[in-house]
Write a structure and sequence with these properties.
Layout lengths: L2 E2 L8 E7 L8 H7 L7 E7 L6 E5 L2 E5 L1 H4 L2 E5 L1
Antiparallel strand pairs: 1-6, 2-3, 2-6, 3-4, 4-5
Amino acid sequence: MSRTIADMTPGEQAVIESVHPHPDAPDYHSRLTSLGLTPGTLVRMVRAAPLGDPIEVKVRGYSLALRRREAVVVKVATS
């Protein structure tokens, strides 16, 4: 089963497998990769906002907030 960052739970770590273009914003792929979300990178889900969106992830030593609709394009494998 394919998982994404949006499927992760707080405290869970995973390795990024791929970043796919977002159907509504094709240029978003390059934005995510420039922020460090690249294949082979370890990512940890820190927390979600009270209503579940956005989510905070830790990647390459810094925190990053993503909307769930944006996080669904980042496929991960649980480490």
